[in-house]
Design brief:
The structure is a homodimer. Chain A is about 40% helix and about 20% strand. In chain A, the strands form three sheets. Chain A has a four-stranded antiparallel β-sheet. In chain A, strands 2-7-4-5 form a four-stranded antiparallel β-sheet. In chain A, helix 1 packs across helix 2 and helix 6 packs across helix 7. Chain A is globular and about 55 Å long. The interface between A and B is large, with 52 and 52 residues. Chain A binds a DNA duplex through helix 7.
Amino acid sequence: MVGVLREAVASKEYASAPFGGRKQLVPTEVELSELVSLARRTRFAAKSKVFTESEPSIAVYMLTIGVAGLYKMLADGRRQIVGFALPGDFIGSPFCDRYTCSVDAISEVTTCQFPREQFLTFLRANPKSLYLMLESEARETTAAREHMILLGCGTAEEKFAEFIISWRATVGRGGVLSNFVPLPLSRKDVADFLGLTIETVSRVLSRLERDNVVRVLPKALVLMGSTETPLLFKRSYKVA
Amino acid sequence: MVGVLREAVASKEYASAPFGGRKQLVPTEVELSELVSLARRTRFAAKSKVFTESEPSIAVYMLTIGVAGLYKMLADGRRQIVGFALPGDFIGSPFCDRYTCSVDAISEVTTCQFPREQFLTFLRANPKSLYLMLESEARETTAAREHMILLGCGTAEEKFAEFIISWRATVGRGGVLSNFVPLPLSRKDVADFLGLTIETVSRVLSRLERDNVVRVLPKALVLMGSTETPLLFKRSYKVA
DNA sequence: CGAAACTTTGATCTCTGTCAAGATTAGTGG
DNA sequence: CCACTAATCTTGACAGAGATCAAAGTTTCG
């Protein structure tokens, strides 16, 4: 659940910075401070669980530092990562009694924890925040569907290319796009996100490196070619 | 975009039936009649386009009769169906300037069309409806993620089994589950939803029929075994 | 009734998964 | 800081699920 409230709450949490030039409804200062008063700061060690699918949903979290992975698992251990949460993203829906997916901290993670019922009450009473959450949730749905086409139609190489380009954009939020792309995820994480095996991911990377399309570093990649259009850019992709 | 407003608007559209026992916020009669006044009835022939990804978003639709398919396409013709819309479901998000996926009528379809800006204005002014939309959108995200695990982890047979069981539940909304499952979708539709080819879908079906798990009829299937737990039920699936 | 569209079935191929070693990297304790 | 062990990553050989190509059967619909 990627938050639209993120700039709001995040800025409030770390400093009382004023809002930027959003043209949509924006929570009032009063709404905001009420929300902030609900928050409890919580930390999670790298690789620890934040919560698990199907256990009772007691809180909504906003991630403030680090990277988390949202995933679903099958009984036999197969795992599908359905998305990643970065600073500013909300995790957990206040509308379900139970969590609809599991979340693990990938790096060390810090969150603002909001008790579910209180968060829900807050939303009911604060239409502007409600509106922002709805926008946010709509983006989330769009992102999920975007990923479906990869999972359903993509080859291993297409999946990886698409992933790394969009990951680069995600981690570079707002900032300038760099060809140096930090990659705190393990091969397993990438594989489980793309519906591949670690071996296939590894082979794709080796091939791309051999062809001078990327340079593989520990915990990072360097994309070759111009910053605007790295060689990796495979997008025959996208829309008919 | 599966609507929560569906019972509301649908009942208003067809009759002024009172609401059922929802315990959440419900739009007031005033809100509702305002919404209904925005609606324009629109029909789409089977296989016609409702709208196409990336064209300007001018309206939100609520499907009232029929089945529609939401999909994304790649330049080379590969297609991923990301979901189906049935009566009561909303199609199109009011928050994006352009449609984020394409929609085709599968059977003949009737919709209520709401001009986007007016719908947006309505939402801003009617917090209770806003709340319902948010709940609805959250369900949509959950459904999308649910499908991801199939696309990423499932074998052909698992994909099909999961699909048909959930399709049966979807078309049987509210009613009793029957082992006779109408299937207005073509093999291509099923294949594009599951990330398979039509040949593979066909082979899976033939195998299941040979093993007396289903009976294949034109435009329908009959599941063998008890109504509660058809033989098809493969669910080693679901949650660790 | 007959042509077009869709579905089934078969033969073959290929991409990715699986299994099995090695090679790196990361983590730990002396 | 280094050495040693565990975890992670890469690479290879092989196998198999599903894709592709091709043709015959069905259904649909004018």
